[in-house]
Amino acid sequence: MMGLYSRHVFPRLMEWFMSSEEFRRLRTDLLQAARGDVLEIGFGTGLNLAHYPSRISRLSTIDPAVILPRKVQDRIAAASFPVETVHTTAEHLPYPDRRFDTVVSTWTLCTIPNPVQALREAARVLKSTGTLLFLEHGRSNDAHVARWQDRLNPAQQILGCGCHLNRPIDHLIEEGGLTIVTLNRFEMPGVPRIGGTMYRGSAIPIS
Q: Residue 1 — pLDDT band, cuts 50, 70, 90?
């Protein structure tokens, strides 16, 4: 039952929920800073594809799961730049050191089993002049909301197919060997605070 849910029901729910106007606006705002050779971790169903600037030279994507493949292929076919997809985990990226100008992570660090290792890998494959762009939900600064995130996290991991409500995204990025350059913390409109506490920004590899 959970296999059916995780492969078919949950992806369609997320596809619907994360296609709203506000999600699209946030994606566009973040991805306008993407440049050059780009890696996206946690590609999912390719909802970011339409929001990349046409000036990027190439997009490589990784995701351990194959989700809604027909929809993904349609989105890749519509892209104005080459797209390469690899099904693997973010903790072990199959790329050489200093390969990418930009690494992108959107609503992904909540689910990766070892996010710090994945961020170390992101730092490894970024050029010394490269940038990590991130847009993630995570732990609230409000102690009351954070307590509820902790209480509901076990259930969320089941219903959200591994998603955590309470990860301190900024701390994880720093533990992963990156320096945060910009960070915007905000509450996403129309989303309960336990899941709508957002971290948006950029980080660079520690030199």
A: very low
Cα separation, 118 vs 125, in Å, equals 11
Instruction: List, in order, residues 6 or more apart from 44 with CB less than 8 Å away.
Output: 11, 14, 63, 67, 108
**Complete domains list, the chain, with CATH:** 2-205 (3.40.50.150)
Query: HEC states along the chain?
Result: CHHHHHHHHHHHHHHHHCCCHHHHHHHHHHHCCCCCEEEEECCCCCCCHHHCCCCCCEEEEECCCCCCHHHHHHHHHHCCCCEEEECCCCCCCCCCCCCEEEEEEECCCCCCCCHHHHHHHHHHHEEEEEEEEEEEECCCCCHHHHHHHHHHHHHHHHHCCCCCCCCCHHHHHHHCCEEEEEEEEEECCCCCHHHHEEEEEEEEECC
pLDDT score recorded for residue 161: 85
pLDDT of residue 180: 98
Give dist(CA 59, CA 75) in Å, integer: 13
Using the predicted structure, report yes or no on whether residue 96 has a pLDDT greater than 80: yes
Instruction: Return d(Cα 42, Cα 66) in angstroms, integer.
Output: 11
